[in-house]
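*** Protein under study ***
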Amino acid sequence: MDPSAKGLIFDLDGTLLDSMPLHYEVWSEICFEKLDFHFTEDLFYAFAGFSANKIFNEIKNITGKEFDHDDLADEKEKRYESKIDQLTVIQPVVDIAIAYHNKLPKAIGTGSPAEGSWMAIKAMGLDKYFDILVSKEHVPNPKPAPDTFLRCAELMGVDPKDCQVFEDGDPGLQAARTAGMIATDIRPFVKARG
C-alpha cells in the first residue's frame, strides 16, 4: 500500500480473482472449436487486460479469418459464466481490499463485461467489499486507455493522482500510469507470497 493513496482501484481478473486459467481454458476451447486456431497460453497472457472484443479482433488479424467477433465474445462470456464455480481468489490482494474496507473508497475496474464480473464477485463473496464496478460497457475506450480507472476515481470522488491501482496486466498498468495514478503491479507481490 502506498501511504499517500486515498482511493483503491482493483482490476478483477488475475488481480482479485484467480480467473486467468479459467479464462484461458474457455478461450482455448472457443478458438479451437470455432476458428480452428490454437490460442497459445503465451498469446493469451500477452492480451491480459484487453476486452474479449479487442482480443477477437487481434485473432482476426492473426488468422485472416472473417467472423463476427461480437457473437464469439458473447459465447466466450457465457461459457466462462457457466464455470464460475471453479474460481478462487488471489488472497494477498483480497486481504488488502478487506483491510481497507470502510477506511478508503474502493472500486473495481475491469475489461470484462459487468454482468459476468458481478456474478463472479458475488460467487466469491466479495460483493460486501465493493459497490463500484466499471467495466468495458461503461467507458468509450477500455484499457490500455485510462478511461476505466478515471471513471472509477470519479465514482469514488477521489482525485486520480490519489488513487492506487492494483493490476496484473501490462495494458492495465499503462492505463493507470496514463491516468496519473499510483500503478501497482501485483505479479511480483503475489509470486513472492507464493
Q: What stands out?
A: The mean pLDDT is 91.
